[in-house]
Write a structure and sequence with these properties.
About 15% of the residues lie in helices and about 30% in strands. By secondary structure, it is an alpha+beta fold. The chain has two domains: about 35-180, Pnp Oxidase, Chain A; about 185-234, Rubrerythrin, domain 2, CATH 2.20.28.10. Strand 1 and strand 2 form a beta hairpin. The structure holds fe (iii) ion.
Amino acid sequence: MDDTFVPLTPLSLLYHSPFTPKKTRNMIDNKAIFNISYGLFVLVARQGEKDNACIINVAQQVTSEPLQIAICVNKANLTHDMVLKTLKFNLCPLSEEATMKPFQHFGFQSGREVNKFAECEQEFRTDNGLLYLPKYINSVISCVVTKSIDLGTHTMFIARVMEAKVLTDSPSITYAYYQQHIKPKPMAAAQPSSGGKKKWVCEVCGYVYEGDELPADFICPWCKHPASDFKLLE
Ligand code: FE
């Protein structure tokens, strides 16, 4: 018997189906969702003369003939709008050579406020004219979007691979690797406070604030999350 997996309902039918599943929130254990593994990628776009990039964690090869990948991008990112408009992107898997720097630089600030490539060497471009990083990544994959699916907070882009090259042998990182080896460890960062000052750690990025009191309107300088995302280190 052929045991090839055949989905019961083609995805295209599901997407257009008027059927809306009932909410089963009480049956969903988020820990099970966290057990899905993810990679981490720099997604680069270019619109006019503007280069920009963000960090994404959903990218997957979906077919080999033709060679297609799928990515999901949060609509809040400027890079999302640029990809939607230009239908082109470079996907760069982050490697074990990555430090916290590319996450802070591309993930914790918006291209609407800063030029993320202001200090980047401009010669690292693929044939489509888009940039890629000279370090922290192990490959660059240039794609043309063939389909986009509105998923509410995110858009899924299906894209054809037009060019792909390996840059280093350094393995790609997973989200779990980032958590274990790259993201600053709050307790390691929390050396004994000097002069009786207290310390608060940002639970999103690991930034440590030291002072008498954490201001209620404090914004994390690394990830821009508010004071409510900080925890007092005891
Ligand atoms: Fe933070």
